[in-house]
Amino acid sequence: MDTDARQPLVVDTGNPEKFEKxxxxxxxxxxxxxxxxQKRGLDRAEGHRxxxxxxxxxxxxxAKLGVQVLTVYAFSTENWSRPQIEVNALWDLLxxxxxxxxxxxxxxxVRIQTIGNVDALPSRAxxxxxxxxxxxxxxxxxxLNLALNYGGRDELVRAVNRWLDECRPVSRAxxxxxxxxxxxxxxxxxxDPDLLIRSSGELRISNFLLWQLAYAEIYVTNTxxxxxxxxxxxxxxxxxxxxxxxxGGLRE
Length: 252
Known about the structure:
Order of helices and strands: HHEHHEHEHEHHEEH
Distance between the termini: 35 Å
CATH topology: Undecaprenyl pyrophosphate synthetase
Number of domains: 1
Oligomer: single chain
Shape: globular
Strand content: 5-15%
């Protein structure tokens, strides 16, 4: 076992210097459900179900450690190209997850939000999302941000178009700025991710949070997502805590 992984994480929120060692915002690419199922002779839907089950303890552990925002890549704009039976199963799992988990998430102080073009989702999924958001809208302990029908490039296009729509009544001659884009992203109002975790060992970001990940620390594990557990999360945070974050500058 990794000795660093056994050491307790610093979560004393009474000490601001120590609290800063916990990432405010963790983003996760939950990859490997299909391979997990294949290794066990199961169909892909069972892998996705196991992946959904793996999310629950990660959400609880993140809130416990003092993470403010947890963004998980649940369904990308490219995932529509998968077999229709698999896509339908994913929406069924989303509806089931929100129905079962929302009351507990609410009791844990977790607010559910989404990023991505959710208007294109099946009506049953939209209804479940709207209900979960409404039920948890007053919770302040942590934000669980579900990326659904999400793509980084699509988000940037939509952000610029939103900005243009606001500018047209005033002037067509204005120039877009970095702050203007940030204010019109799906994640507006949330801090950028400090840490990106990718399971399954793939070394790419897969069109995820292209703007927001500019200075995120990246942690890749070979563990397939259904096997990713709170100990794996702590290992990722320990690795993050040992990084020297300079944001393009130099340490004195």
